[in-house]
Amino acid sequence: MNIFEALRESHELQRSLANSLIETSGASEDRKELFDLLKNELYAHSVAEDRYLYIPLMFNDVGLDITRHALAEHHEMDELVEQLEETDMSSPSWIATAKQLSEKVHHHLKEEEHKFFQQAGKILEESEKEKLGKKYLAEYQKYKNADT
Ligand SMILES: [Fe+2]
Ligand SMILES: [Fe+2]
């Protein structure tokens, strides 16, 4: 599996968790569970993606631009997750922020899949795409299995 195929698997999961999360209400078990799952998925994916897609791209000029943009968005998503952790789950502002996070996640994944991955595909060698895919998956699994 190359790096892009591996990344897209987590993207599908992020989309479905974000969609389900914004359908929950109040401080329910469903909401708590889905928030934990989404938080863990976003964390494991972004750590492994930063290390095995974006850092290698930074050595190329176009890659550097893509990377700066993507890392800024990862940071914005982290901040929304933090804001959710600090807000009472039953308050209306929690779901408003969760919707903002969901929109940001969808926007970010679309931009990666339709723009950044296409550009990155031209920068990386085929053999590198396979190697990075393996490294990404190992790193992702490590954080998926850890408590975050
Ligand atoms: Fe990303
Ligand atoms: Fe991604």
From TrEMBL:
Annotated ranges, domain Hemerythrin-like: 3-119
Matches recorded under PANTHER family: HHE DOMAIN PROTEIN (AFU_ORTHOLOGUE AFUA_4G00730) (PTHR35585)
- Source species, domain of life: Bacteria
User: Which InterPro entries does this UniProt record tie to the protein?
Assistant: Hemerythrin-like (IPR012312)
Organism equals Acinetobacter beijerinckii CIP 110307
- What is the name of this protein? Hemerythrin-like domain-containing protein
